Structure formats: structure tokens, C-alpha cells
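Feature request, filed as a ticket because there's no other form

It would be nice if the structure record came with a short human-readable summary line next to the C-alpha cells. Right now we just get the raw output. Example of a typical job, pasted below so the devs can see what we mean:
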Amino acid sequence: MEDDKSYYVYIILCENNSYYTGITNDLINRFNNHAKGRGANYTKLYKPIKFLSAWQVENVNIALSIEHYIKSKDKKIKIMFTENHRLLKSYYVKEMKNKKKDFNSKISIRSVSKIDIDKINTIIKDINCNGK
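Raw output as currently delivered:
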């Protein structure tokens, strides 16, 4: 079942210095689709440059909820999340507990390491430079 797959919530830096937030179960493929103008109107207008951050979550429903949460924040908060990846979980859980008293705070939100983000960005750059 698709909901049982691991999903990622990500923040991409776009060419106009804006941030785009989305979800996927395949970071490299999703970025390449954004780069080709597929899938999101925003990245059709403002081409993606690189991933700034990504977080792995348990399923698509949690990913959608976190995506919505991040998109509701201003750029200062998004910058804070990209600079300190662990803050996303604590801020998200706190806000969800305030909104939903029965919110299960034991959800798994694992940040993708800076090293892995750099590796993914290198792979994407190589793919795009080689025209694949």
C-alpha cells in the first residue's frame, strides 16, 4: 500500500531566491521533474537550483501535513528549519498539539543529513550537466 512507503518533505532553493516546499518518495526524480517544468506551477516559473533540506517521514499523510505546515510559515522560519533541521519536528509537534489535543507526538521525522543533501545535489547537477 502506498501510504506505507517512506516519504520526504523537502525545501528547494529556486532561481529567484525563493523556497519551494513539496513531498515525494524519490528526491532525485522529483527534483528532475521540477527542473523539467513538470509537476508544480511554481517551479515552472522559478526553476529549482538545489535542495536545502529534506525530512523523511512515515507516510504520505504525515508528509502532506508537514508540507502544509511549512508552507504556512514565512521565509524566516523556513530558513531556520533549513539551518537547524531538528527544529522542524519540535515546532511542528508543538503546533499540532495546540491545534489537536489528541495529536500523536510520537511520529518519526528524520532529517536527511547535510552530507546526504550535498550528495543528492551533486547527483542532480551531474545528471543535468550530462543531459540525462
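Something like this underneath would help us a lot:
The chain has a mean pLDDT of 91.
Strands lie at 7-14, 19-24, 48-57, 109-111.
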